[in-house]
TrEMBL record:
<comment type="function">
    <text>Catalyzes the insertion of molybdate into adenylated molybdopterin with the concomitant release of AMP.</text>
</comment>
<protein>
    <recommendedName>
        <fullName>Molybdopterin molybdenumtransferase</fullName>
        <ecNumber>2.10.1.1</ecNumber>
    </recommendedName>
</protein>
<keyword id="KW-0808">Transferase</keyword>
<dbReference type="InterPro" id="IPR001453">
    <property type="entry name" value="MoaB/Mog_dom"/>
</dbReference>
<comment type="pathway">
    <text>Cofactor biosynthesis; molybdopterin biosynthesis.</text>
</comment>
<keyword id="KW-0500">Molybdenum</keyword>
<dbReference type="Pfam" id="PF03453">
    <property type="entry name" value="MoeA_N"/>
</dbReference>
<feature type="compositionally biased region" description="Basic and acidic residues">
    <location>
        <begin position="35"/>
        <end position="52"/>
    </location>
</feature>
<keyword id="KW-0479">Metal-binding</keyword>
<keyword id="KW-0501">Molybdenum cofactor biosynthesis</keyword>
<keyword id="KW-0460">Magnesium</keyword>
<dbReference type="InterPro" id="IPR036425">
    <property type="entry name" value="MoaB/Mog-like_dom_sf"/>
</dbReference>
<feature type="domain" description="MoaB/Mog">
    <location>
        <begin position="230"/>
        <end position="366"/>
    </location>
</feature>
<comment type="similarity">
    <text>Belongs to the MoeA family.</text>
</comment>
<dbReference type="InterPro" id="IPR036135">
    <property type="entry name" value="MoeA_linker/N_sf"/>
</dbReference>
<dbReference type="InterPro" id="IPR005110">
    <property type="entry name" value="MoeA_linker/N"/>
</dbReference>
<dbReference type="InterPro" id="IPR005111">
    <property type="entry name" value="MoeA_C_domain_IV"/>
</dbReference>
Amino acid sequence: MTPHGARAGEEDLDVEEVLALVRNSNGNQPSEPAGRGEADSTRPPHRPDPRHHATAWPQARAIAERTARSTARAARRAPVSAPLEAALGLTLATPLDALTDLPSFDTSAMDGWAVAGPAPWDVRDEGVLAGHSTPAPLTDGGAVRIATGARIPPDTTAVLRSEHGRTDATGRLYATRDIAPGQDIRPRGQECRSGDQLLPVGTLVTPAVLGLAAAAGYDTVEAVPRPRAEVLVLGDELLSEGLPHDGLIRDALGPMLPPWLRALGAEVIAVRRVRDDAGVLRRAITSSDADVIVTTGGTAAGPVDHVHPTLSRIGAELLVDGVQVRPGHPMLLARTTETQHLVGLPGNPLAAVSALLTLAEPLLRTLAARPAPEPYTWPLRDAVQGHPHDTRLVPVVLRGDEAIPLHYNGPAMLRGIAAADALAVVPPGGTRPGQEAELLDLPWASAGIGVCFT
Ligand SMILES: Nc1nc2c(c(=O)[nH]1)N[C@H]1C(S)=C(S)[C@@H](COP(=O)(O)OP(=O)(O)OC[C@H]3O[C@@H](n4cnc5c(N)ncnc54)[C@H](O)[C@@H]3O)O[C@H]1N2
Ligand code: MOO
């Protein structure tokens, strides 16, 4: 594995600059109708050559990130005060400064005796347990039974572990090995002083961050709110239960997308089935107050593929109209209002995954103010056939220090991705056995279901 090193510095671009970048990259005026808008009768009903519009894969991801950054700046969403139990997966909007010294008092690190002065020691009758208030001071030659986590009595020299002490017939305590002054005492403020910065703005709230926040005295943390996402599942052929029959198939994306979008930082406010009707789709889009609308299907140029004409009719700006990636090349990204984006995922399920990781991931991550993952590469055990011009995303499992490409990676298949640890980014032309390729992690593969899906 070879980390690429730090990401190239992403300069702050505003929306105009992003749009200019799109114009330059694919010759397409993003503010123009998408290409087959009913509003523009001078245009042919089908886009003549999708490849002509398609954005290179790395650039598509950069556009998604940049438009999210400029929208986040424009929208200035106020931080929320999140109770710890609701903060997992959010990003800190203010630094986590210690509200107390840690430890907040001198603490015994071991079960044993607090002792004062040299051995032997007379042991007090009553011991000190964790949670007790300040115990009485010791005097030279004195000792007291103490539990791990208990407050150290004033004038204690050290803590003698229970396994390193013995008492004689008269009950006097001796050490079976040397103990140094201060041994097994955690002094107040050893980890931090009140006011110390424990974590900076922008830190992802993990289970460990929740623990640290609680230890440091927090009941709530100031965090960036999750971007609100609404999923519109298009397609009259979809069933929500039972076996496929009579040309109807099960909706695979309705169940898959909400948890995946949550893992990417979104709050999923609704999942709606939308029938193949341009008016219904239009109303569904224009009535949504989500930050990000995610549609599935209808991105191509078939008779009931209503996404492009609808975006055109509502005056949305197409920032990405097709990406040079397989599967998923008809994917799109549009800005529907000043503060709202739409990600069009193709209907083929693995193509939808590809679009999710290409466009939705950088968009949601940036809106959620999450840190960008460090890109990394991994050797692919087997040769992978490449597309002549486009990037391929191929499901892989990680075994030892190799990534093994999986079969069943066709656009309509989920069998490969369901078994995968990551997606390999295969450049045009393919890879040789042992050649390194960038990997895109799947959120559950590295973070665990409970962590990333809450
Ligand atoms: N003439 C062309 N046809 C197609 C092209 C092309 O370039 N020229 N591209 C193909 C590619 S590549 C893809 S990907 C698809 C994208 O199509 P759409 O986004 O319009 O999706 P649909 O046509 O609605 O569906 C495609 C396929 O996926 C199935 N589907 C849809 N939704 C779901 C779902 N929620 N769960 C499971 N399966 C779903 C749907 O039944 C179709 O089989 O276009 C190609 N065509
Ligand atoms: O983008 Mo499509 O998935 O190649 O079938």
